[in-house]
Amino acid sequence: MSDSPSARLIAAANEALAARDGSGREIALRRLGALDKLRLFKAAGPALAQNAPYLGMAMLAASVTAIEGVPVPYPTNEAQIEAIVARLGDEGIAAVAAALAPSGAEDENLRDRAGN
């Protein structure tokens, strides 16, 4: 496999991640791609897609692929987004956010490429 920047980005995007929340639940997740985000905007609807706090939480929820080994389908409407958020609760959302947060090295690499 090529070690080009685009190949590394694709591999990172497809990487399966896991988090454990404060209750000890194992949460499987993945990083959302452009098409996933576009579909999430559609699922949230026009008003909620413009609501940054709602959309941020929805993106965390949509990143979840399983909780305790039970598959979580990708949400296709507002009710499904909210159902995932309800299943995760505060502890689950916090664990997903921490798992998806860029590492310090990734932040530094992004700043370097941006010229900051």
Which keywords apply here?
single chain, alpha+beta, four-stranded antiparallel β-sheet, 4 strands
Provide a descriptive summary of the structure in words.
The chain has 116 residues and is an alpha+beta fold. The chain has one domain (14-114). The protein is 60% helix and 14% strand. The chain contains five helices and four strands, in the order αββααββαα. It has a four-stranded antiparallel beta sheet with strand order 1-2-3-4. The protein is globular, with a radius of gyration of 15 Å. The chain starts with a helix and ends with a helix. The model has no long low-confidence stretch (mean pLDDT 87).
Given the structure, what is the number of helices? 5
How many individual domains? 1
Alpha-carbon Rg, integer: 15 Å
From the N-terminal CA to the C-terminal CA, the straight-line distance is: 31 Å
Order of helices and strands: HEEHHEEHH
Mean pLDDT score:
87
**Strand neighbour order, sheet with most strands:** 1-2-3-4
- Summing up helix and strand content along with how strands pair, one would put the structural category as alpha+beta
Total number of beta strands: 4
Tell me, what's the shape? globular
Given as residue ranges, the uncertain stretches (5+ residues, pLDDT < 50) are: none
Strand content: 5-15%
The description of the largest β-sheet is: 4 strands, antiparallel
Binned, the helix content reads 55-70%
Q: What is the secondary structure topology, with strand pairs?
A:
Layout: H1 5-14, E1 16-20, E2 26-30, H2 34-48, H3 52-62, E3 64-67, E4 70-71, H4 78-100, H5 104-114
Antiparallel strand pairs: 1-2, 2-3, 3-4
Helix pairs in contact: 2-3, 3-4
